[in-house]
Amino acid sequence: MGRQPCCDKLGVKKGPWTAEEDKKLISFILTNGHCCWRAVPKLAGLLRCGKSCRLRWTNYLRPDLKRGLLTEAEEQLVIDLHARLGNRWSKIAAKLPGRTDNEIKNHWNTHIKKKLLKMGIDPVTHEPIDRQPSLQKSSQSTAATESKSDDLQLQSQGCEGQNHSSENSSPPEESSNTSSNDPVVGSLWEEDIPLIDESWMFPCNEDDYSSVVGPLPWEGSSEWLLDYQDFGIGDMGLGSSAIEN
DNA sequence: AAATGAAACAACCGCCATGCG
DNA sequence: TCGCATGGCGGTTGTTTCATT
């Protein structure tokens, strides 16, 4: 047990990030990049653990993120990818530029799962529900059209009750999914080419950064940005000064 | 208008894989 | 080869927002 925790719990702030913290983190990373997440909070003057900083950056502050709901096409791609990859959200996210694993995971759990259930498709196996033995015995309405009550049944039977504990995070091997028919998705399988935007490789230098993503890449993404515009990255001087500390 | 419940989203936790000394 | 530090991932929980009664 001599292992050092990722962050000492004392003096480490938790909970929602404030606009001020966001600004500090953004400014620091744009100025210095992140060589080592563990060091970032200290250098940036944040009372957070490195893990929290990394998460905040990758899931919310990263300038190349798309905000807003997934489009129909994206949603379909997620479904196809999930059929193939299972709950490997990071792999799935890698195929959707500008989307994070957390975002996709949330969207899956809140939207897509229900949508599939309504369609009579098991979100875990991607098989039609009425073709699943464990469900057939329960002779309840298989109805793709019926939803509400089915949702509840399936969440206990389809998701947990299907001996998927081990497969849960692994792909249902070569299942008869729809992806192979999809030219776009199909191409993804053949090569593991990440569909990553060029902008993902954004420069750490603020000037270069601006030239790539524009002066206010996060404009409108959240309230703090309004303040942020007034603030101005360059005026903050947090980066270099923080390092000197 | 207030209370309650549901949905959506953000963040945390614990585990695992990898790199390095 | 081993042990530790770190980053990353997936699951889960907490908080906020929205809808309904």
Automatic annotation (TrEMBL):
This is MYB-like transcription factor ODO1. Its main location: nucleus. Residues 125-185 are annotated as: Disordered. It is found in: Nucleus. PROSITE patterns: HTH_MYB (PS51294), MYB_LIKE (PS50090). It comes from Phoenix dactylifera (Date palm). InterPro entries: Homeodomain-like_sf, Myb_dom, Myb_TF_plants, SANT/Myb. Residues 9-61, 62-112 form the Myb-like domain. GO terms for biological process: carboxylic acid biosynthetic process; regulation of DNA-templated transcription.
